[in-house]
Amino acid sequence: MAFDYDKYIRPGKLPHIWCPGCGHGIVMKGLIRAMDSLNMKKEETAIVSGIGCASRLPGYMDCCTLHTAHGRAAAFATGVKMAKPEMNVILVGGDGDGTAIGGNHFIHACRRNIDMTYIIMNNYIYGMTGGQFSPCTPTGAKASTTPYGNPDPGFDIAKLAIGAGATFVARGTAYHATQIDKLIAEAIQHKGFSVVEILDDCPTTYGRRNKYRSVVEMMNRLKEVAVPVKAAEKMTAEQLEGKVLTGVLHKVEQPEYCEQYAKVLQRAQAAK
Amino acid sequence: MAKKVAFLQGNEAAAHGALYAGCKFFAGYPITPSTEVAEVMSAELPKVGGKFIQMEDEIGAMAALIGASLTGLKVLTSTSGPGLSLKQENIGYACITEVPCVIVNVMRGGPSTGMPTGPSQSDVMCAKWGTHGDHAAICLVPASVQELFEETVRAFNIAEKYRMPVMVMPDEIVGHMRERIVFPEPGEIEVIERTGPSVPPEQYKPYDTSYGDVPPLAAFGSGYKFHVTGLNKMQDGFPTTKAEIVQAEEERQVRKVEANKADIMKWEEYLCDDAEVIVVAFGSTSRSARFAVDEARKNGIKAGLFRLITFWPFPEERLLELSKQVKGFITPEMNLGMCTGVVKGCIEGNAPVLGIFRVDGEPVNPGQILDKMKEVK
Q: In chain A, what residues touch B223 (CB-CB under 8 Å)?
């Protein structure tokens, strides 16, 4: 029997705003399968986002949903989680929202290791505003504000998250759709701040400026560059040139923020 | 039983007022001259099961505050000028999403870094117009340590009652001075809780105006699922660009304060009944003004003090009435004429308004006010 996505979709809120060929819908379906596999209760789950195409995702989900200001999802979510640690808190957003204007909140959420899962849909571009370059746009790529090619180097979101202290970091792609739910489910189950980067595509504002003639071509690129971490262990540096590792990239156990703060409460009340 | 009396700093009193009101969450960022508010909250909140978080920046502090309020907690942040500028983005978010929160902003010199340790009253316009777009503003300007405590309690009451951000803005002198304070007993000052939903989750709409201009607010994690967005929205919380809905919602959010001004506004009239010259002042400046009024009366000048306790909404109607009896107003303030301009704007030219402006980090002294009274003919 076909999977029933409707049980997590908010009645009457589809169709979504995403363009034909955009991978965000694939990610949303992965999130729904992950939530279903963990039997997550909708009324005990907060889905928080910033601004941008990917950040419209919460509106379609039948949960406690918070569509905040540009880049601020992690900070709003920190307030929700700290106030109600028993809630499941999931962040969603794009690469520009999360790593440019939201970069500070992102790294500090990683550092605190607060128990939330952040799904970053990295399509290398600001899509909603019409295709300006983001901190993840590859050097040399064309965007509406890099008509002569992008002079900036791009961020590696996974390395940024690991460096900042996230205790679970994974990467998948919109092409590898059946892997997405497994990565997200593992991230949600991890105690601490977990980051799942999904390499995504924006045919409308990135593809057409960068000589991708079709969505299929963009999806094929995701297929070609992705190398599972296990497979990469057996590959040479030369073979890994231009490739992107996928799967669980980093997983360690560290004290979780809300649990640490619970100890603060105990100490304060003992000293009273 | 004798009431608890203490010798307290203004900022400490603001924190204790918040605790009295039932505040259970604080998110902030260190900034002079407001940091003591955060320090007291970091020590006291965990004792009562509340949470304190020092965020990575002022923007994040305001964001975390709104997130926590949406779970049903009463929330506080504190800041000062440069921090208030940064918080404006999410103050606007709290306005449009109608999420209760209290911001204590201790006024120091500006713009920019300005004079971090010097007193000022130059954030009162920022309280109203700091965030972009049309929105209502509520700003309380206490003048003593006792009043800072009480007005912080009232700020929570107003925030919860009207579902919106409320600012408490002591100037640095009020924030940092130490005075005797008598703590009210629990129950002595009314503490208002926000109105929650009276319908089951499947019928709940976060902006249901069938309840009036202030719809009930459910809490995340209480069984109610709903959507919150900074976009213009419909009654069910989802975005819309429908002209008539956006117009009606924007007007309602301003009207909920306008129509309830009498409940929110507060001021004190001292010797105004027969006054020919009225000093309009607030915060620490009103203390110099009161001294000057007493001195003037000794010299036969019919002086009075109109002390603002709310700056927004501004008591326009009452000042218009008084303008018909006086020969002039005097408006001393630690800025370059912000209150003066508002007074001029509401008295229809009935009387001259003579400002005294100081932005040098020094308070306006009574002598300056007495001298200015001589100019009122």
A: 43
**What ipTM score was computed for the predicted complex, to two decimals?**
0.97
Cβ neighbours of A135 (radius 10 Å): 18
Mutation for testing the A interface, residue in B48, B227, B235, B241 having most A CBs under 10 Å: B227
| Sign of the alpha-carbon dihedral angle for B355, B361, B367, B371 | negative
- Closest CB from A13, A48, A84 relative to B221: A84
Nearest to B90 among A72, A83, A269 (CB): A72
pTM of the model: 0.97
Give CA–CA dist A54/B208, Å, rounded: 28
For the segment A37-57, the average pLDDT, to the nearest whole number, is: 98
Tokens of B372: 């200015």
Could you tell me how many CB contacts below 8 A there are between chain A and chain B? 135
- Nearest Cα to B357, choosing from B329, B337, B328? B337
Amino acid at B282: F
Looking at chain B, how many residues does it have? 377
**For residue B354, what pLDDT band results from cuts at 50, 70 and 90?**
very high
Given this model, what pLDDT does residue B115 score?
Answer: 93
pLDDT per residue over B128-138, tens digit each?
A: 999 999 999 99
Q: How far is residue B233's CA from residue B241's CA, in Å, rounded to a whole number?
A: 8
| A1 pLDDT more than 80 | no
Is A46 within 8 Å of B221 when comparing Cβ atoms? yes
pLDDT, tens digit (0-9, with 9 covering 90-100), for A219-271: 999 999 999 999 999 999 999 999 999 999 999 999 999 999 999 999 999 98
CB B135 within 8 A of CB B204: no
Say how far apart CA A194 and CA A132 lie, in whole Å.
28
Give the pair of three-digit tokens for residue A158.
């996974």
Element (H, E) at A164: helix A157-164
Q: CB of B53 within 8 Å of any CB in chain A?
A: yes
Which of B162, B198, B169, B165 minimizes the C-alpha distance to B63? B165
Q: Distance between CA atoms of B115 and B75, rounded to whole angstroms?
A: 28
Contact B51 A63 (CB under 8 A): no
Token output for B6: 């203490």
Name the H helices within chain B.
10-20, 35-44, 58-69, 81-97, 124-129, 145-162, 172-176, 243-258, 261-264, 283-298, 316-323, 338-346, 366-373
Residue B237 in tokens? 């919380």
Give A193's contacts in chain B (Cβ within 8 Å).
none
pLDDT of residue B377: 86
The end-to-end CA distance of chain B, in Å, is 53
Report whether A167 contacts A156 (CB < 8 A). no
Round the average pLDDT of chain A to a whole number and report it: 97
Q: Measured between CB atoms, which of A43, A81, A104 is closest to B223? A: A43
State the distance between the two ends of chain A, measured CA to CA, in whole angstroms: 59
